[in-house]
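Hey, resending since the last one bounced:
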Amino acid sequence: MAVKRSQSKSRKPRTDGQRNRERILEVAKKAFSQSGASASLDDIAREAGVGPGTLYRHFPTREALLEAVYRTEVEKLAAAQQEFTRTLPPVEALRAWMLLFVDHIAAKKLIAPVFNSLVGDSNKVFEASHALTWDAIRALVKRAIQSGDIRKDLDAIDLLRALIGVANVSTSPGWQESARRLVDILISGSRPAE
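The structure tokens again:
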């Protein structure tokens, strides 16, 4: 008689399973950005090099896949803050993260309409990711202020508002290049007065 082993919910996913999940998310991000909500899940599975069963095992619904794509992008943004803090001087870490945030806005603008069309109320997903973004920029600004690279009265929200403001005109061609230039303007304007 075979004895079934109970699987612990805290067990880490197998390495191949984790790789499959990551490939699916990367391919899905691209597919949803290009084709919208109608992107074929079978095509996503095929492009990721997995079967449809593997895709549905990881993401039982289209909504679950969309939510995972969005959350993954936000988690990458938060993780980048930690990496930049470890590897770059304070003001350069802030600049690098802000440039990455511009790319995040672009991805969100592509994914959010698709997500909204399927889920209706995506506010809970966006609100949950807001805290990660806010914590990341606050930590970077605090570190840059402590180093003396950034003026003491700078509020991190000011930087986010400026970048988001540029993103609100994202229907114009070249908005991302404009937002990237704005990052350097914001960094220059945030330096302490001499």
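The domain at 66-189 is CATH 1.10.357.10 (Tetracycline Repressor; domain 2).

Sorry for the duplicate.
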